[in-house]
């Protein structure tokens, strides 16, 4: 790893002696803070990114990154590196004692650019994100810069920052706190996080070995090598495997962390014949909790700082990156002056329900894996035993319901359907990918949208787009780009060159979006569907856009 | 669909005997497990979550007071007499 990436440098303020003034300061250069900073930088916002440490994460930590996260990383310009380095998996097996209970496939349908999940050690993700952050040339990334005081006012946020060369002060328009579960920013502002602590401990180990296990998620309930507890085995890049052992509440973390003890547990699991080396060990407990609100005036909380879940379901880092995805375009638009402050309130109204969904799912998984009472243990065992022979019971077995993107149904930004649509997507949901062919060859839908408002027009085989869509719908406040999609055999050459045009080569756009000729779909900069119609209605489209972008009233009147 | 609470069992006495017979020779713990498995099997057979919620509420009724707090054994016993 390039240590220059994480090198400490003396802050400009300490050289000049002048207090700095920034539009956005992001605290925490973990995956979530880095994604937030890169997103803002891509929208043209200069960002100060502060981290109290000067290295990537120790140990693998977050390892499972979902399709949606890869799609966001694609938009942020480093999805390909992450996907290439990561280990692709979509199959899982669940065992009870020494028997296979059932297996699952997380992406049963083809026709997506990205797989359901990849596994990659968090330190690789952080390295790639730091490199991408440097590339944007808009991010001033400062290691060993620790925020020691924060004062949030009506016009700005004032920070005092401690470095090896002394303290300095800055002001910023907005503060993005992605400083982790123990969030010092949260504590300094006197804000609380409340929820549930689980009385269980888990041992987590990164093990390097040449093993012929398939690249699948394997979960054991009560295995012979670790009786009465659960174990998870998962492959990462570079032949590193992640093993999680449930230990129970009474386990002593100090004793369990001892390498000899960990090695004997792993040897019991893998057998004497499998050589391995232990790379990293940690013992952890977890909580399911969140802050009451994630926006506090000019301060926004993202990721673990705002909400925490149990690790079952890969909902921690994935949901944090979705927080960043949600906030970036909103903050950029308010800073450029095209959107009202209400757009920032929608960070709360969209991401709080998302956090609740993640907390609900991860709490349910934890209740299954760690039964809290005798009767819940009895029902758990009953479900596991029945799952052997009765397929229905496999649906009750819960070893983690894996992260899916939250659909912002009922968001104040989205426009409810007036026409009837079937299919898998509805307003508020993230784009569902589809393979297409453009003028230059094969393409993916997911790569065509994002970073701006996009209007997709479905031409079918015989319905050319109406003039206004070809001419462009933009005004000073917001521009919409039109993309035209037609069926195989449709003459795309009839559409002017400046309009991106695609063929629905597999018919999957029509299927997944329930599209009929003339359909119009409005996508937000974060690739979520905002509104859709069976036929173009310019007034409805403008009003949906105004609602989604929280345009200022004069801009609305002008349209 | 709503929960059927009117008589619906074809042969109530036979069912009751069969239920007790299923628990023969089982320890307290094994009986608990059998009950749990039986509930899961029957729940899947019913399928409808609304009906199941009604059944859960009916099963819990009078075991807890109006506020949803479990009654002490004493007050439960008084209510039965």
Short description:
The complex is a heterodimer of chains A (559) and B (81). Chain A is an alpha+beta fold and 559 residues long.
Poorly predicted regions of chain B are 74-81
Continuous helix count of chain B = 4
Mean pLDDT over the residues of chain A: 93
- How many strands appear in the DSSP assignment of chain B? 0
The pLDDT mean of chain B sits at: 87
Biggest β-sheet of chain A: count, sense, barrel? Answer: 8 strands, mixed
Q: What's the number of domains of chain A? A: 3
- What's the end-to-end separation of chain B, in Å? 34 Å
Fourth-level CATH superfamily of the largest domain in chain A: FAD/NAD(P)-binding domain
Specify the structural class of chain B.
Answer: mainly alpha
Helix fraction of chain A by DSSP (H/I, runs of at least 4): 25-40%
Q: Largest beta sheet of chain B, briefly?
A: none
Oligomer: heterodimer
Write the layout of secondary structure elements.
The complex is a heterodimer of chains A (559) and B (81).
Chain A: H1 12-16, E1 20-27, H2 31-42, E2 47-50, E3 64-66, H3 67-75, H4 79-85, E4 87-89, E5 91-96, E6 99-105, E7 117-119, H5 122-136, E8 139-142, E9 146-152, E10 157-163, E11 166-177, H6 184-188, E12 193-197, E13 202-208, E14 217-221, E15 230-235, E16 240-246, H7 253-256, H8 259-270, E17 277-284, E18 287-291, E19 295-296, E20 299-301, E21 307-308, H9 316-336, H10 342-369, H11 374-389, E22 435-438, E23 441-444, E24 453-460, H12 467-471, E25 480-486, E26 501-503, H13 508-512, E27 520-523, E28 529-533, H14 538-549, H15 553-558
Chain B: H1 12-22, H2 28-46, H3 49-60, H4 73-80
């Amino acid at each position: 790893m390039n240590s220059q990436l994480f090198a400490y440098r003396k802050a400009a303020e300490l050289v000049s002696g002048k207090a700095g003034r920034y539009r956005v300061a992001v605290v925490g250069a973990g995956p979530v803070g880095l994604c937030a900073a890169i997103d803002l930088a891509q929208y043209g916002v200069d960002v100060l990114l502060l981290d109290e440490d000067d290295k990537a994460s120790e140990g693998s930590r977050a390892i499972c990154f979902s399709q949606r996260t890869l799609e966001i990383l694609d938009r942020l310009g480093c999805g390909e590196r992450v996907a290439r380095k990561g280990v692709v998996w979509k199959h899982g097996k669940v065992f009870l004692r020494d028997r296979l209970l059932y297996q699952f496939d997380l992406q049963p349908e083809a026709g997506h650019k990205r797989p359901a999940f990849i596994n990659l050690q968090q330190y690789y993700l952080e390295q790639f994100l730091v490199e991408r952050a440097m590339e944007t040339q808009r991010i001033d990334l400062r290691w060993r810069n620790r925020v020691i005081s924060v004062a949030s006012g009506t016009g700005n946020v004032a920070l005092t920052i401690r470095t090896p060369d002394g303290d300095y002060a800055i002001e910023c328009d907005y503060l993005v706190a992605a400083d982790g579960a123990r969030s010092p920013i949260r504590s300094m502002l006197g804000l609380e996080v409340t929820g549930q602590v689980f009385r269980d401990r888990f041992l987590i180990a990164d093990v390097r070995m040449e093993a012929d296990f398939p690249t699948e998620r394997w979960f054991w309930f009560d295995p012979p090598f670790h009786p009465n507890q659960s174990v998870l085995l998962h492959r990462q890049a570079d032949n590193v495997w992640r093993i999680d052992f449930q230990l129970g509440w009474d386990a002593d973390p100090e004793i369990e962390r001892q390498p000899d003890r960990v090695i004997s547990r792993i040897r019991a699991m893998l057998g004497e014949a499998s050589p391995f080396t232990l790379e990293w060990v940690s013992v952890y407990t977890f909580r399911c909790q969140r802050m009451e609100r994630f926006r506090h005036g000019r301060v926004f909380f993202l990721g673990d700082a705002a909400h925490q879940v149990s690790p079952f379901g890969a909902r921690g880092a994935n949901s944090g990156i979705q927080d960043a995805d949600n906030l970036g375009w909103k903050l950029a638009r308010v800073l450029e002056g095209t959107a009202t402050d209400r757009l920032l309130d929608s960070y709360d109204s969209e991401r709080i329900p998302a956090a609740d969904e993640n907390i609900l799912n991860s709490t349910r998984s934890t209740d299954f894996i760690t039964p809290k009472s005798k009767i819940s243990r009895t029902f758990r065992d009953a479900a596991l035993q029945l799952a052997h022979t009765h397929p229905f019971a496999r649906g009750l077995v819960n070893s983690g319901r894996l992260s899916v993107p939250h659909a912002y149904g009922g968001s104040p930004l989205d426009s409810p359907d007036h026409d009837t649509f079937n299919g898998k997507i509805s307003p508020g949901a993230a784009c569902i990918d589809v393979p297409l062919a453009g003028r230059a060859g094969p393409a993916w839908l997911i790569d065509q949208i994002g970073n701006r408002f996009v209007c997709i027009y479905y031409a079918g085989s015989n319905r050319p787009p109406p003039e206004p869509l070809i001419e462009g719908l933009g005004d000073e406040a917001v521009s919409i780009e039109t993309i035209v999609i037609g069926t195989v055999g449709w003459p795309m050459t009839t559409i002017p060159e400046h309009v991106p045009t695609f063929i629905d080569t597999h018919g999957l756009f029509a299927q997944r979006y329930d599209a009929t000729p003339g359909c119009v779909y409005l996508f937000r900069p974060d690739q979520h569907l905002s509104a859709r119609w069976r036929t173009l209605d310019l007034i409805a489209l403008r009003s949906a856009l105004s609602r989604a972008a929280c345009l200022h009233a004069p801009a609305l009147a002008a349209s | 669909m709503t929960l059927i609470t009117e008589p619906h069992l074809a042969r109530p006495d036979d069912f009751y005997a069969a239920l007790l017979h299923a628990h023969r020779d089982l320890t307290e713990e094994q009986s608990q497990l059998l009950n749990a498995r039986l509930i899961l099997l029957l729940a899947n057979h019913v399928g409808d979550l609304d009906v199941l919620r009604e059944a859960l509420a009916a099963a819990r009724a009078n075991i807890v007071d109006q506020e949803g707090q479990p009654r002490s054994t004493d007050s439960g016993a008084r209510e039965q007499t």
